[in-house]
Amino acid sequence: MFFQQVVNGFVLGSEYALFAVGLALVFGAMRAFNVAYSVTFLIASYVAYVLVSVVKLPMLPVGFLLSILAGALISLLTERIAFWPFRLRGTSDHISEGIASIAFAIVVVNLVQVIFGGDPLAISSPIPSVPLSLGSLVINSIQLLNFGVAVVLMLILGWFLKFTKAGKAIRATAFKATTVRLLGINPERIRMYTFLASGALGGAAGLLMTIFFGSVHAGIAESMMMKVFAIVVIGGVGSLQGSIVAGLLLGVIEALSVTYLSSTFRDVSAYALFFLILLLRPSGLLGKREVNRA
After folding, report:
1. Which helix (H) or strand (E) is 95 found in, with range?
2. 164: left (phi over 0), alpha (psi -120 to 50) or beta
């Protein structure tokens, strides 16, 4: 039972990690906390619902690709509405941008509720749920699909950041944002690339979570955002590897808590352990402590 729940936790945690990596990417490269990041998750989920359940398009690959594209575009729209106007006026700061992104997220969530209502909407799975036995462990085909896609997307992100011109520019901006102009790098273009990549990851996570639970509703974005903020902080703000480790850890903790304690302790036990980690390592699991020298 223990190892079975660890496997279940890794599947769920991979989706948490995929979602958190997108937020960590924006903060690491742009030093911007996109509080409206949850709308990428939400919009991608509802786009998948419309495409699959209303338009009757196949989830794979059409619905999947269009949902990721929707997440990327809503993320870019968030940047243009909630962040860009402050830079244009030269009044950019974390508080103003955070409040603007919160306002944008509230507007989007309410529009979704007006259009689709507040009740959960069922969405069909792209593949049948078939249990697969691995010795004493059992994992169904949907879990395997979700875990595999999440891992592949995170590997693609790693390849993109390490080997592509745009990815190297994002890393350079994250390392020293004030000097990238001297290298001929346009920071506005890099910001667009970063928000697009972040939104694509958030959209993919929203779609995978929708497939995992078999339904979508407007309230899921808010609850997921609370978890992803905790994951990013625990992993080390701006650390992609830390977000992955913390996301997997959260999934395992939740699975074990439901099994050995109660479903009511699912969030309590996870956040209690995370609070303990922060007491021991204030910079997060893989975060680096910044040293200010006079």
Report:
1. helix 94-116
2. beta
Q: Average pLDDT, stretch 149-169?
A: 91
CATH of domain 2-280: 1.10.3470
**Which DSSP string do the residues of 231-276 spell out, in sequence order?**
HHHHH-TT-HHHHHHHHHHHHHHHHHHHHHT-GGGHHHHHHHHHHH
Take residue 53 and report the two structure tokens written for it.
């359940």
DSSP 114-143: HHH-SS-EE---SS---EEEETTEEEEHHH
> How many whole angstroms separate alpha carbon 21 and alpha carbon 40?
13
Question: Whole-model pTM?
Answer: 0.90
Residue 259 Cα distances to 70, 212, 242, angstroms: 36, 19, 26
Q: Closest Cα to residue 11, out of 174, 208, 192?
A: 208
Query: What does the pLDDT look like over 48-107, one tens digit per residue?
Result: 999 988 888 888 888 889 999 999 999 999 999 999 888 888 777 778 888 899 999 999
Sorted by where each begins, the domain ranges of the chain are: 2-280
